[in-house]
Design brief:
The complex is a heterodimer of chains A (289) and B (354). Chain A has 289 residues and is an alpha+beta fold. Chain A is built from eight helices and ten strands. In chain A, a hairpin with a 5-residue loop joins strand 7 and strand 8. Chain A is rod-shaped and about 190 Å long. By secondary structure, chain B is an alpha+beta fold. Chain B has three domains: 93 residues, no CATH class; 124 residues, Tetrahydropterin Synthase, Chain A (2-Layer Sandwich), CATH 3.30.479; 78 residues. Chain B contains eleven helices and twelve strands. Chain B is rod-shaped and about 190 Å long. The chains are: A alpha+beta (289), B alpha+beta (354). Chains A and B meet through helix 1, strand 6, helix 4, strand 9 and helix 6 of A and strand 9, helix 4, helix 5, helix 7 and helix 8 of B. Strand 10 of chain A pairs parallel with strand 12 of chain B, so a sheet runs across the interface.
């Protein structure tokens, strides 16, 4: 009975050791190459359970996911001789782990190789475009070209460059100050324009209303004078019509009225008895004397 | 994050076969010295196998999704609830939280969630070039979550390393690209909605290109303005606009004040003139009719009426005045000696004679 157990345990031990040295799994997010005595023999890119020769073959794992590359900002010169601080990033993956292992060995090596490749291509491509094109008009187009070229060149290292993008494109500090100055003067110009426009409009409104006032009152005065004149004229006509029928009598009545009005209290009158005024007085006096 | 999944997760350091051995030894040890045990080893093996099989039971919490890996390969995604996978080392389950909405801040960081919340500006992130080569200061947030499509969680876990950094990089690139297509006035005013919308669309497109399995919930501009260095000038433009409005309003107020007043004045002038005119005519009419009436009577008895009118007038006039009557001869001698200044002092002493 003891012997039977021993043989069972021996068998189990052999199985366990055999399994752990011969079987290996490649997880979903990784890929692997199998190295036999330093010589790569196989590439495994599909996840799952695999077997290898125990002891003489070893497995090297590489990431299969999209990896980040982020360079520190660097100054480039655009076609129109503007300096631009470009901070670009890239996403890449190990496409051919065997090639990758042979040429750059590991991720750190890949990063530094990418740095060389992408920087030179970015520099080259952006140098062919003006600042305006890079910032505004053809940004995605330019970067698509950079991506394509970087990818083509990185293939030699078993790397696929999925995307290169400009994260930030800023002006160097010196140029930034210029931009700020330009922005400030532009705003000042706008502010002046607005204030002047306000003044213009206000003056227009004020002067127009002044004009309206003047015309309005002058028109009213004119109309008033006309009305007054018409009244006067009508009155004159009425008088003339009435008095014209007997001018002699009018003279009498009007003269008498004038006496009443002009001779007030205390008026001193020096008159000759022979004057026209006393024609009647003398006549009336005579019979009494 | 998957970095922590580089080695098989939930690995069990002990081997099940050694378990069996250990249990058997314990059982033997316990009964040592007493009579040899009558345990059927196959029963022990069966029980152990059953317990082993039970380790494949798992529960996915409501905010999670279960991803079942068989020898490292994704075989299925499981919804929340209980589930079963073949026991280790054949299958294992990873349960990332997928409903959580994550947030990334650009141009600022929340220092304290508060309340009151405190923020810190991060200028290098927020200063951006616009299409017309101006610079704006723009702060925004991005909210994103794992896509709720069947393969969303798988994509999220296994397609991209450093997912959060990827979102950050892509969001910055997207926002700057969108802003590069706008000019400053548009970006500061009515174009904000459009900028948000475009940036979200572009960011989503980039993320889809990477296959990161993330969905952009929202891109929201927080604080958009001119850079601090020139914000005074920008504020002055706004106050200039208000000045303009104010000047115009004041002028309108002036117009509204003087024009109606002038209209009133004009109406007054006209009314006065009309009143004058009417009075003049009426007065004249009255006087004329009075004269006519008198004249009619006068026609009937000319001499008598003339005398009567004259006498009546004299009656009224003479009592009121000082009378000096001189004949021509006396007059020539006396007049030079009269104290004329005293005599004439009461005004209106002109000779009424004509």
């Amino acid at each position: 009975m003891d012997r039977r157990w021993i043989s069972i345990f021996t068998l189990l031990a052999v199985l366990v050791v055999g399994w752990s040295t011969a079987a290996y799994t490649v997880p979903q997010w990784q890929q692997a190459i199998v190295v036999q005595l330093g010589e790569p023999v196989r590439t495994v890119q599909e996840p799952g359970l695999y077997f290898k020769l125990p002891f003489i073959q070893t497995v090297l794992y590489f990431d299969k996911r999209l990896l980040a590359y982020d360079a520190s900002p660097r100054e480039i010169l655009t076609k129109d001789k503007q300096q631009l601080m470009i901070d670009n990033f890239s996403r890449w993956r190990i496409r051919d782990p065997l090639q990758f292992y042979r040429t750059v060995r590991n991720e750190a090596g890949g990063q530094s190789r990418l740095d060389d490749v992408i920087y030179s291509i970015v520099r080259e491509n952006l140098g062919r475009h003006t600042l305006r094109e890079i910032v505004n008009e053809r940004r995605s187009e330019v970067m698509a070209e950079v991506t394509k070229e970087s990818d083509a060149r990185a293939r030699a290292y078993g790397i696929e460059v999925t995307d290169v993008r400009i994260k930030r494109a800023d002006l160097p500090t010196k140029n930034e100050l210029n931009v700020f100055n330009r922005m400030r003067t532009e705003r000042e110009r706008l502010a002046k324009k607005f204030r002047a426009e306000g003044d213009e409009e206000a003056r227009k409104i004020r002067s127009e209303s002044d004009k309206e006032v003047q015309i309005l009152t002058a028109e009213a005065r004119k109309q008033a004078d006309i009305t007054r004149g018409q009244g006067d004229a009508l009155a004159v006509k009425i008088f003339a019509d009435a008095y014209g029928r007997d001018p002699e009598f009018y003279q009498l009545v009007r003269t008498l009225e004038a006496y009443r009005k002009s001779i007030t209290d205390g008026t001193t009158l020096i008159l000759s008895p022979k004057s026209e005024f006393f024609r009647y007085l003398a006549q009336l006096d005579r019979p009494k004397e | 994050m998957p970095d922590s999944f580089d080695f098989p997760p939930r690995g069990r350091p002990d081997d099940p076969l050694q378990d069996i051995q250990r249990i058997l030894e314990q059982v033997r040890g316990r009964f040592a010295g007493t009579r040899p045990p009558r345990v059927n080893p196959w029963l022990v093996v069966a029980i152990v196998l059953a317990l082993y099989a039970l380790t494949g039971v798992y529960i996915v919490a409501p905010d999670e999704r279960g991803i079942v890996l068989r020898f490292g390969r994704v075989v299925r995604e499981a919804d929340p609830g209980p589930g079963y996978h073949l026991p280790w080392p054949i299958e294992q389950v990873i349960k990332p939280s997928v409903t959580q909405i994550r947030k990334a801040e650009f141009g600022f960081r929340t220092v304290e969630v508060g309340p009151p919340a405190r923020y810190r500006d991060v200028d290098p992130e927020s200063l951006m070039l616009t299409g017309d080569e101006n610079i704006v200061k723009l702060q925004f947030i991005v909210q994103f979550k794992v896509k709720s499509v069947p393969t969303g969680a798988t994509d999220f876990l296994f397609n991209v390393r450093d997912q959060e950094d990827t979102v950050r990089d892509a969001a910055e690139a997207a926002m700057r690209e969108v802003l590069g297509r706008n000019d400053i006035d548009n970006a500061l005013t009515e174009g904000k909605e459009q900028v948000q919308h475009d940036a979200q669309a572009l960011l989503q497109r980039i993320l889809d290109q990477y296959g990161v399995g993330l969905e952009v919930v929202t891109v929201k501009l927080q604080d958009v303005g001119p850079p601090d260095q020139v914000s005074d000038a920008f504020k002055d433009v706004i106050s200039a606009q208000q000045d303009k409005e104010r000047l115009i309003n004041e002028a309108r107020g002036y117009a509204n004040d003087v024009v109606p007043k002038a209209r009133g004045q004009a109406a007054q002038l006209l009314n006065e003139a009309e009143a004058y005119s009417a009075a003049k005519v009426l007065d004249a009419t009255g006087a004329a009719q009075r004269f006519s009436a008198l004249q009619e009577e006068y026609e009937k008895a000319k001499e008598v009426t003339r005398q009567r009118l004259y006498l009546e007038t004299m009656e009224q006039v003479l009592p009121r005045m000082n009378k000096i009557i001189l004949d021509d001869v006396a007059g020539k001698q006396v007049v030079p000696y009269l104290p004329l200044d005293q005599v004439i002092k009461p005004k209106a002493a002109e000779a009424p004679g004509q």
